[in-house]
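TL;DR need structure tokens for one chain.
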Amino acid sequence: MVRLTADWTRRRVLVAAVLVVSVLVGGLSARSEMPFSLVGLGAAVLLAVVGLMLDAFGGLVAGFLASATVIAVRQAGGAWTQADFVSALTLTVGLVFLGWLAGLAGTSLGDTATAASPEFVTVPAYGSLGLLSADQALTRLNEEIARAVQHDRPLTVVVLRTDVTDQGLSAGARSAAHRTVARLLESLVPETAVPFALARDEVGAVFPETDEASAWELLGPVMDAAGQASFTVREGDERRSLLDCAEVHAGLVVLSPANAEATQLVEAARRASRAHQLSSAAEPDGETHSRPAS
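>> reply
TL;DR here they are.
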């Protein structure tokens, strides 16, 4: 029962709603005389299929087009009369609603496919997560660098690298582990920070007006939470501790003459996190909270 409840997600509800509305609209069309019943039924089926390939707005437009087509056919055949005006109007409104609902379901299915993709982290804003893509982050970082230089304020960049140590994890479970770290970073850094995504296993943040010591203090709660976090493995409907199957390594770099550009700061932070990963591999307890050189 728990497995069935977990699988009954929002996208399934939307798809089921599309099927129900399609049946209702088709049934309403069947009450019309031939060949108008076939026109309405065909429009409903085609709209449900096409709408799933669009977003909500695209589905709404498709619904209006389908309704206009049905109205034009009925008018041309002399079936748009006062006697059946209410049922015809209900049918056209139902087609518009069906198109919008199918587009909404299509958007949900598209988001799910993106989240399941191995490259989901590189999608701008992580889908539902408020993380910038790498290109967006570099643009924003350049702006913060210019502001820091102009006002003579510190700035730091941190990169978190999630190394999955349990080789038995499925692709879906690995993605869940990576998303867990991304959500922790997004939710626990200050509002002034700029979280971003670099790769499937690398996320980071820009800390404006923050020196190295303060940046480590801000990063501490994220690392502590990572040590206690867990995630769901859908294949087995079980919870796994992140600490049991992955290590989170942090690299931090401060704005300096040697690292004065956005790309230099990000790459330096990535190298620091990778260096920390290599150094912690030699430690017996796999400690992930030590500070790599910045």
